[in-house]
Amino acid sequence: MGASSPKKVNSRHAELSEEIERHNRLYYVENSPALSDAEFDRLFDELLELEEKYPELKSAASPSQRVGAPASNKFSSARHRLRMLSLQKVSNANEFAEFDRRVREGLYGKENSENKAIEYHVEPKLDGLAVELVYRKGILDVGSTRGDGAIGENITANLKTLGSIPLALPSNTAKRWPYLEVRGEVYMRLSDFRALNKKLAEDGSAGLANPRNGAAGSLRQLDSRISAARPLRFIAYAALSDDPNFAGEFHSQSQSLKFLAENGFPINDHSRSVAGIDGVSQSFQSLEKERGSLDYEIDGMVIKVNSFTDQQRLGVISRAPRWAVAWKFPAEEAQTTVENIEFSVGRTGVVTPVAVLAPVRVGGVTVTNASLHNEDILRTLDVRIGDVVIVRRAGDVIPEVREVIFDKRKDKARPVRYPKNCPSCKRPLSRAEGEAAQRCLNPACPEQLVGRIFHFASKGGMDIDGLGEKLARQFVERGFVTTAADLFYLNKEQLLELDLMADKRADNLLAALETSKSRPLPNALYALGIFGVGETAAAGLAEHFRSIAAIMEAGSDELLEVDGIGAGIAESLVSFFAEKENRDTVKRLRSAGVTFACKQRKAESAALAGKTFVITGSLSRPRDYFKALIETHGGKVSSSVSKNTDYLLAGEKAGSKLSKAEKLSVEIIDEEQLEKLIRD
Ligand code: IVH
User: Fold this and answer.
1) Is the pLDDT reported for residue 592 higher than 80?
2) Residue 346 and residue 357: Cα distance in Å, rounded?
3) What is the DSSP letter of 1?
4) 8 A C-beta contact, residue 573 and residue 600
5) How far is the C-alpha of 516 from the C-alpha of 526, rounded, in Å?
6) 126 lines ligand 1 (CB under 6 A)
């Protein structure tokens, strides 16, 4: 460290650096932060102040490197000591069995390979960017992209901004392995991606098309301060060294990952060793199931022969190792041509650009339309009519255009202009501040009504069999319905006027409408299409209030008590039911016979009969769990403490309700005492 900085300053700087890096690790690698953001910032500010005063303290491994540096002109190139390989691919169990056979025969010969179960290491294949980190004497020296496999770009300054990448290795590791390479993937979490896009829109900037483009674009910023502001993360999947003893010390992929984890690198928690084809197939299936609930995108599983000796014996063929393979999920991406770009009006008035595609099979279904999301993304992707694009369909989500293949763009490809007026009702569109969406604000807009009717009839809503978008549009165009309630007042003569409506189909539709009248409260509430009230929120509201009338009368405060209902949804509910038109719709639905039925809770006992409870503070389970528990034992739960309250069930951090209960001498109980009341 610098000669001119006093000893005390040096040691404080070292202490701060270590402390900051420890908290970075807790936050980014172990997912268990121990400091608040403000506390962390205080440490960081102190470090920056010290370095401002004593610039010689700024070392390559100082956490201050994480804030990024101003733009350079161009990235320099970085040669990889060992080629960054690509992977062979398989797409089904038969092809994987074929790979496994080649591995067994390669290791044991054709004759002796029959009954061997290879030990494999399986890892999710993250859909991000491959990078290499070179540590010299324990300090991160060069970080680079894959490039062509032999030479990549030197993006060290950008990679240093990632909190999940250690700037320095523990000193014993540095001593033992003075040269260490770590390879892995840089990616963006889905939740971070969504939050970032929201923020970009608020700042009036163009949004990012998808997390992978987001990660790639952020890493390749010449100004690393921009990378620093992006929520990028790193996952390590390989450790290499030029030291011949390295392979002697770590015998397998699983051991080397353990070594990486012990040295502060994040590794994927879905990685594991499994035995043979069966082990691999099972983990593949369970990964496929879990895929939708992960907070990052994966496009398959990487399967590696676990033993390093065996890897060595199998070797490399052209640019891919013989000991590893990528088993990809069913092709969820395909290439096709954009035939047109249309603008569709959704039930909330949002106008979405939609690419009309030459039909193409993606993930097992034929896709003819794909969402382009909004104006910003349309502009970022730069999709034009006539372009060849990659479309993607993941799980049940609406297919989307992922990228344009610019090499295939023809001169005549036409950009589209975002419409200024609603394509349906022709009123001017508006874009609220902080929103990416262009909206039609006319509540009587016919296309919005079509969307609302279609949503009303959907599976999660009233589940009216046979009522699709086309039929909804006919109802609206002919003026048969202006609100969802009108559906229940349609008669057979009207139905028979419609296109393609035969006698039988009309009867079926009337029967389906009749059946739907007894849809349970959560579905009927969801069907109303209140902004923000999805299936989960609707279920929570129904569980809590138990009648449509109670939900309609509830004020914000009471709504906020429901698990999963935040200020936004509460406000949306209040303003929805403040509109006379909406109240009338509910009234007409009820007079038509829609029950908004709420299942009665089966009474388990009458242990709490006649007792009124109020619940407050944070408990070991959601509040609605305790509400249901009390009610199934005959008790009542109300939202505020009064002299009629018998018990206050108080968890931790109980606030004003606790003091009020104390004042009114209401008995205060905890979870255990509640259970005792029920039991005894
Ligand atoms: S191993 C020789 N492991 O997939 C092994 N790659 O074609 C080469 N990837 O872009 C890579 N997750 O960045 C490996 N757990 C994982 C991976 C992984 C994602 C990416 C990698 C590269 C591509 C390999």
Assistant:
1) yes
2) 20
3) -
4) no
5) 13
6) yes
Residue 375 pLDDT: 85
Distance 239 CA to ligand 1 centre (A): 13
Can you spell out the DSSP letters for 379-423?
HHHT--BT-EEEEE--TTSPPEEEEE-GGG--TT-B--PPPSB-T
Count CB atoms within 10 A of the CB of residue 161.
23
184 alpha carbon – ligand 1 mean position (Å):
7
| Cα Dmax for the chain | 95
How many other C-beta atoms are found inside a 10 Å radius of the C-beta of residue 80? Answer: 21
Q: Provide the angle, in degrees to the nearest 10, between the axes of the packed helices 93-112 and 276-290.
A: 160
Which tens digit of pLDDT belongs to each residue from 310-359?
Answer: 999 999 987 889 999 999 987 678 999 999 999 999 998 999 999 999 99
Which pLDDT value is given to residue 2? 43
Helical pair 623-632 and 535-545, crossing angle rounded to 10 deg:
40
Exactly one of 7, 89, 110, 125 is catalytic; name it: 125
Cβ burial of 611 (10 Å; 0-12, 13-18, 19+) is middle
pLDDT of the residue at 673? 94
Separation of CA 508 and ligand 1 centre (Å): 53
- Enumerate the β-bridge partners of residue 649: 615, 669
The amino acid occupying position 87 is L
380 vs 196: CA distance, rounded Å: 15
Cβ of 123 below 6 Å from ligand 1: yes
4: CB partners within 8 A, 6+ apart: 54, 56
Can you tell me which atom of ligand 1 is nearest the CA of 130? 13
pLDDT band at 206 (very low <50, low <70, confident <90, very high): low
Q: What pLDDT does 440 receive? A: 94
Split at pLDDT 50, 70, 90, the class of 216 is confident
Average pLDDT over residues 530-555: 92
What ranges in 579-645 are assigned the alpha helix state H? 580-592, 623-632
Distance (angstroms) between ligand 1 centre and the Cα of 31 equals 23
One DSSP character per residue, 75-132 reads PPEEE-SS-----EEE-SHHHHHHHHHHHHHHHHHHHH-TT---EEEEEEEESSEEEE
Tokens 């991406």: give the residue.
333
If you ran DSSP here, which 8-state letter would residue 182 be given?
Answer: E
Ligand 1 atom nearest to CA at 84: 8
Q: Is 216 in the pocket of ligand 1 (CB under 6 A)?
A: no
Report all structural domains of the chain as residue ranges with CATH numbers, in order of start. 7-79 (1.10.287.610), 88-328 (3.30.470.30), 332-408 (2.40.50.140), 446-516 (1.10.150.20), 612-679 (3.40.50.10190)
142: tokens are: 């060069």
pTM of the model: 0.56
CB distance 148 to 231 below 8 Å: no
Tokens 């676990």 belong to 306
Examine the residue annotation and report whether 408 is marked as an active-site residue of this protein: no
Q: Let me know: does 649 contact 636? Beta carbons within 8 Å.
A: no
